[in-house]
Amino acid sequence: MDKRSAVHHRRRGIRWTSFSLVHPTGGFMITAGSSVRIRVRCKTGGIDFSIGLETTMHLTRDDLYSLEKYAEIRSDFRTRVMAHKKQRQVAIGAHATLYFEDRLTMQYQIQEMLRAERIFESAGIQDELDAYNPMVPDGSNWKATFMIEYEDVEERRDALMRLRGIEDRVWVQVADFDRVYAIADEDMEREDATKTSAVHFLRFELTAPMSAAMKQGATLALGTDHPEYGYQVEATPEVRDSLAGDLAD
């Protein structure tokens, strides 16, 4: 199971497993499952009307495999997820990495937790969904696990003291737009008076023009500007395209 921790807080929202729209005249019918965004506009009988519906991007129980099914497909599923994760991680210097999360990476985390703990009761499954869903992007943002990585224990301890506050100095920049600094650790404080944590959970909230630019292929830079750890890198096309897919049209 991945060494990253879950974010344990709850976020309220509407969860629709499925729905359908049927025009009274039988002119059209639309059905959709969870995590689908739909905009409908039509004219009938001289009346112009529009309908806009949006479902949550969060995971529900219907998105998860049963323990038995997951045991059958785990090897292939894990291979798929690991390949997907490679397109969503960015090294910032030699000792820090951003791991961008989405529905697939969070589904994997949940499935692995359910498997490890042998959780099959509804309440337990819902607890895991509530813990991990806050890390699923909402369509206007990116969410990432930020890890400070030093193999040597003493070196890591020293670095965490020197890098206190680094979680607030991590940024992304779309093309020539202003840098967007991370909103860090919304669930709980992960640093104390002497040191930061090796793991942080970040949210980067983008403006509509930034999102539109990403959809059009804009460049993406990422970095940190902490006094003790300043780096800037440019996302590869694979990472850029994967992150653009997190943003709503």
TrEMBL record:
User: Please, which domain of life does this record's source organism belong to?
Assistant: Bacteria
Please give the name of this protein.
Answer: Uncharacterized protein DUF3501
Q: Which organism is it from?
A: Thiocapsa rosea
